[in-house]
Amino acid sequence: MPNPAIRDLHPDEAEALGALMVEAYASLEGFPPPQEQPQYYELLARIGDFAAKPGARVLVAHSPAGELLGGVVYFGDMAHYGAPGLATAQADAAGIRLLGVSPRHRGLGTGKALTRACLDLARAQGRAQVVLHTTQAMPVAWTMYEGLGFVRAPELDFPQQGLPVFGFRLPL
């Protein structure tokens, strides 16, 4: 498949992106199911709400045929990133959260294209680094992030309802 088209979420596709995100995360082996993390899955279902936060953008990837492939939230202002403690205190940083790709379209470069779009936004805004978090249930994403130059940042780790969440950063 050719590179997906990346753009800002249109309000009329927020519900479809939310459903895609719930499906993407629920399909991850080892990731807590919706009944164990109902608030997190509600956050995923309402991903479009992030577009209203200052400095945040919800980006989507579409196939050449217009099919929704995935999405991500970019935070140009870490004050609205939403992770506890250190992530919001990172000077000159941008953040990436909630990267998700439809299970039917994984392995085609969509996640990488969405991540690169976020890196481009951070560079254009003059950010010194990009911060993100992932879990052990996301080994493909973990490998992709490291391949793009992100390094583990243990000082950004935190537990989310008993689930270890691991911090990464990429100096720009």
Give a verbal description of the structure:
This protein is α+β, with helices and mostly antiparallel strands and about 170 residues long. The chain has one domain: Aminopeptidase (3-Layer(aba) Sandwich), CATH 3.40.630.30. Helices cover about 25% and strands about 30% of the residues. It has helices at about 15-25, 40-45, 110-125, 140-145, and strands spanning about 5-10, 55-60, 70-75, 95-100, 130-135, 150, 160, 165-170. Strands 1, 2, 3, 4, 5, 6, 7 and 8 form an eight-stranded mixed β-sheet that branches. Helix 3 links the parallel strand 4 and strand 5. Helix 1 runs antiparallel to helix 2. The chain is globular, with a radius of gyration of 15 Å. It starts with a strand and ends with a strand. The mean pLDDT is about 90.
Q: How many extended strands?
A: 8
List the helices and strands in order: EHHEEEHEHEEE
What distance lies between the first and last C-alpha atoms, to the nearest angstrom? 29 Å
Q: Total domains, how many?
A: 1
What overall geometry do the principal axes of the alpha carbons give? globular
Low confidence ranges: none
| Gyration radius over CA | 15 Å
A few lines on this structure:
This protein is an alpha+beta fold and 172 residues long. The protein is 26% helix and 28% strand.
Q: What's the arrangement of secondary structure elements?
A:
Blueprint: E1 5-8, H1 14-26, H2 38-45, E2 56-62, E3 68-75, E4 93-101, H3 110-124, E5 129-134, H4 139-147, E6 151-152, E7 158-160, E8 163-171
Parallel strand pairs: 4-5
Antiparallel strand pairs: 1-2, 2-3, 3-4, 5-8, 6-8, 7-8
